[in-house]
Structures are given as structure tokens and as C-alpha cells.
Amino acid sequence: MAGFRGTTEDFVEVIRAENVSKIFGSDPESALPLLKQGKSKDEIREETGQTVGVNNASFDIEPGEVFAIMGLSGCGKSTLIRCVNRIIDPTAGSIFFKDPEHGEQDITTLNAEQLRILRKRHMSMVFQHFALFPHRTVLSNASYGLEIQGRSNDERALRGQKVLDMVGLGQWGHAYPSELSGGMQQRVGLARALATEAEVLLMDEPFSALDPLIKVDMQQELKKIQRELQRTVLFITHDLDEAMRIGDHIAIMEEGKIVQIGSPEQILVNPRTEYVAKFVEHADPTGVITAGTIALPFESDAFESSGERDGIRYSHHRDHPQIRYGRDRDGRLRGVTVDDREVPMQQLEQVLDAAEGAEVSRLRDEVAITCSEGTVIRRVLRGRLHSTLPVIVTTADGRAQGLIDDPELINGILEKRGHTA
Amino acid sequence: MGESLEFLRTLMNDPFGFLDIPVRQIITDIVNWIVANFRDFSRTYISPPVRGVMNSVQWALSSIPPGIFLIGIFLLGWWAASWRIAIFSIVSFALIGFMGVWDQMIITLSLVVTAVFFCILFGLPLGILSSRSDRFYAILRPILDIMQTTPPFVYLVPAVMLFSIGNVPGLIATIVFAMPPVIRLTNLGIRQVNSEFIEAAVAFGSSRRQILWKVQFPLALPTIMAGLNQTIMLSLSMVVIAAIIGAGGLGLEVYAGLERLNIGQAFVGGIGIVLLAMVLDRLTQGLGEKAPGVRHKAD
Questions:
Q1: What number is the ipTM of this complex?
Q2: What are the structural domains, with CATH classification, of chain A?
Q3: Concatenated DSSP letters for A397-420?
Q4: Distance (Å) from the C-alpha of residue B287 to the closest C-alpha of chain A?
Q5: Of B206, B215, B296, the CB nearest to A177
Q6: What is the pTM for the complete model shown?
Q7: Alpha helix segments (H runs only) across A196-263
Q8: What's the CATH code of the domain at B181?
Q9: What's the mean per-residue pLDDT of chain A?
């Protein structure tokens, strides 16, 4: 099982949903041909009286990633997640699941016994309203799945305690759920889902019922646990910021259909439909959009050459001829001069580490700060507190890619557009 | 013309004269047939276990010295409910003793305990079955209605014919009359369990049996206890009626008192029943609130 989580090469995806549809009503099959014709939810309801829950949803979830499904209430996201563990039976489509024992299997074809094994060992679930058993103690709730797996009392107590410690509730094992706050209850819900060591964690709006502050706490907690355990998580939410904070990939649903799938940054920078764009409008981009996306490339025509010396070519932005950037033949940054004076270069990480806890001075140094292309805008902004010079963005292979100055930052935050977009 | 008018008039004035359903005769025949064919069966297979349980309970209860009994009832009240109920219970039982009907109370209590034992023994499984099958409950429901609403006097005589007089037919009549609430409220309690708990249990791979015993039943317990409370009250209300066919205890005290126009004796029995009923009611209510499912209703 350990090998399963470790080797991503053998398993391209853990879950692959293909054209999953769910229609509610007296005669679901009657609506399927209309779905194929691409009719809308309202049209289908008018013609057949059936309600479309999920409309031809397809997606892949890679091992160890958090895959977030985002949409408004009634868009079918809770129905879709329940199709994955067959609490709801999909009307059409297939959901393939790869597990180390059985290889790939289509969940929609499993019989009752196989389904129970799937739910016992391979998939666990966290619910919006916690759904903790009120008559059981916190410990006994956390170890419920182990009880169903038929583990011994000792093992249950041990493992239950371990997962409670993991979510920070080690002291609360003997309390009852009603004695806990909402956030603590959901920690128990999370512990219960982690205890079974299922590879896949289904989370149905797990933090939606929590206060905003607690919610952020829980998101960080989940990220921390996820770094450690690397489960594959299917995460449902109606909050785009949450999806962006937690998800490695995000699928956006509208009226039962998945309208866009992509990384948080792809969705933010390049929303494919009006609907997605409307969501994205109010999202906070500073933690999502990266330096590489907004940087003004050295190759663009905003830069002019300012000569060559010792094999290093210098260039400057046409609005700021006094600042020159020297790069070698491989494109690596070799020096920055202001009014022909060499200025020190420093990596953003070092600048921020050194400044941590210190009071911010209004007098900024002249330091050429460099950052990698994957750095989020928020950190670049913080770096701006320490230097008056633009931030230089470098690629993974060490090339200097471009510059971030105020226009790039403002454009990135307000318009959510990269330079090249 | 005149003839058909005449016919219409007769039809309107006495529409029942045309058909006579001999229900009386039919039922008499049925009862006679049952008595003739099942008398031996019921006396060999039904009476002995009922009488056996009744006698054991009565033996156990009457072998407790009344002083110890009083202390026990006090502690039970304290544990199950509160110190108020504990004091109320000990005072009530002491009063029964001071009125001189302690032994009769023990017999009545044994009758009630025995009846409730059988009500749970059959009622609980029937209630669980009802909660799992709509069809089963649809069949059972009219039977429960009949059991609860038929005046007990009606089946008292057939009970005597089948089981002869004494405590046993009284007990059988009591069980028939008092069982429906256990069935109904077990069914209701299980069906009422919030579906989110069921969903959570399913999501972790629980089987139907596991869902029943690990989730539904414990969460239904407060409701089931309410049913049990009703069953106890109903069986207490039957003890006077059962006295008519020879059951003993406080009921007999009332019945005998009335027969001899000894109003005082009848009232002593009556007060004893009331006190016993109130104590049992408070104790079972206290137990119901102690049930773990009460701790939390999903918010």
C-alpha cells in the first residue's frame, strides 16, 4: 500500500470519471438521449419531467492531489461526489478506480459486497454537517471505520488515538460530539475519515458550516495533514477562494455540467466561460497567480539593449534606462546596475527570511531581488517592501525571464491577467 | 308503478332488512372452533412459559425484605432520574405498605413486569421488522389498531376459555393490549433517525445489520423508551380488568371492594395502583432521558 502512494508512475490517475450523468425522477432513462443532444436542464425538465443532477461529467484525479469541485448550491456537485462512492447510483457513465489490490475497476459495476469493501478500505468521507454519531464518544467516532473493518479493540483505540492526535484533539477522546465546537467536530469527522487509511478521501463541503476564521484554520490543517499523508482528495466546495487554497486542480460546475477544469491559476487567469469569469472576478489572486505569469519578459519590445561588456549583454526597460540588467549567453542574470553602479542581488526567500519579525522601514534598499517563476504574487508584494527596484523572475533552469514592477503587480491583482495573456 | 314506489319506500326506511349477516353466530362458531382446537395447545405451550416467568418474578420480588426493597427503589430513582424522584418513589412505596397492601402491590408489580417482558420480547423485533419493511408495517398496522381499540372485556371470555381463570389469561389480555406502543415507537424511532447518520454509516461500508445495531437502534432508544413507558402504563391499567377473570393483586383489591360495596377497600387498591403507576412512569422516563441518543440532536 505504501508503494501505491509513492509511485506515481504506475498509476496515472486514481479516479477517472467518464461521462457520468445522474438524472432524478420517475424515468431517468428517458432524459438520456436529450442530454446527448446537449439540451439544458430546464429544457429536459420541460420535456420529460426529469431533473438533471449531473450532466456528462468527466475528470481525472491524480494520486496524492487535492481535486476540488466548485459550484453553487444545486449545481450537482454533492450528487457527483456521492456517485463516486455510489451512495447515489449514476444513471449513465463510468467511474474507474485504481486500487493496489484489484487494479482498475469500474465502480458503477460493483455489487453490494464489493461496494462495501470499497467504502471500508479505499474511500472514506467527510460530511458538511459532520454527521458524527451523537451516542458515541469522540474516540469511538474516530474509530468507527476501523470497527467496521473488524479491527480489534486495542488496534482501534491505538489508531483512533493516533488520528485524534493528528487533528489536535488527543485530549478529547472521551468527550461526546455535542460537547465540541463546530470546528472541533469537523476535526473528528476528518479523523474518522483518516483512520481507515483509505487512499481516497471524499470531502463534501467539509468546512462550509464553519465560521470564517475556523474555516481558514481547518484549510491549513488539511494542507498540513495532506503534506504528510498524501491522500488523494476529492474536495467539494462552493467557495472559490477555498478551492484555490486547497485544490491542485479545480473543476467548476454549472447546472450539472463541468464547465472548466484546470489549476487554480489557469482558471483565474483564463476563465473559459462567462460563468467562471463571474466567479473569478471576486477571487483573491495574490495567493494564486505566480510571478512567471505576470512578469514582463526580457524578450518583449519594452526592453532595449544597452550594450555588451565581458560577454554579458545588458538591457534596460525603455522607461527606466538607468537600471540595466546583465545576462550571459545562457540567459542567466549576471548583474544589475543602477546609474552604472553595481547593486547587490538577493533571492526573495532570503530577503523575506531576514526581514521576518523585523519592523518594516520606509527607507527601502536598492537591492535587486530575484524570485522563481512559481512564487505567488503575495510574496512578491512583500518583497517590494524591501527594495525600490523591480523584482527579477527566474525560470526553473536559472534563466532570467522577466521583470515585475508596479504595473505588472497592479495588472495581475486587479485584472488577473498575465503579461502574455 | 305503485309497486316499485312501495319498494323504494321500504328500501329507504329499512335498508338493512334485506340482508342479515349472522356475525354473532359466525364469531361464536369461530371462538368455539378455536377453543376446541387450540385449548390444549395454549395450555401446554403458552401458559407454562407465561406462568413460569410470572412466578419467578413474583418469587424474586417477594423474597426481597420490604425494608431493603424501599432502599433499593430509592437508589434506583436516584440513579435513573434525580433525588426528587428518589424521595417520591420511596415515599410512595412506603405509603402502599402503610395502607396494608404491600403484598398485593408485589403481585401487581410482578404482573406488570411479566407483561412488559413479553411485550419487549415480541414487540421489539416486530418494531424493527416494521421499520425495515413498509409492506410488513402496512399489514401489521391494522392488527395493532385492533389490539389497542378492541375493548378488553370482549376478549376476556375467550381468554378464559383458552387459558382458564387466574393470572395467565389476565396476563395474555394485558400483553395483547399493551404491546402495540413498543412496536409502534420502535418503528417510529428507527425511521426517525436522521438520514445523515445513516449516510455516514453507509459511506464507511457498514452492512444493514451494522447500521441497525451501531447507529439506528441506539439513536432510536429514547423513542423506544417512550414506547416502553406507555406499555407499562397500559399494562397497569389492565390489572383491574384482569382481576375480573381471577388475576390477583391491587386490581383484585379494587374489584373485590366494589363487589362487596366496601368503598374503602376499593380506594386503597386504587390509590396503590396510582402510586405504583406514577413511580414506574417517572423511573422509565428518567431512564429514557439517560439513553445516549438524547445527548445530542443534530444542530
A1: 0.81
A2: 2-283 (3.40.50.300), 291-415 (3.10.580)
A3: TSBEEEEE-HHHHHHHHHH---S-
A4: 15
A5: B296
A6: 0.81
A7: 212-229, 240-246
A8: 1.10.3720.10
A9: 88
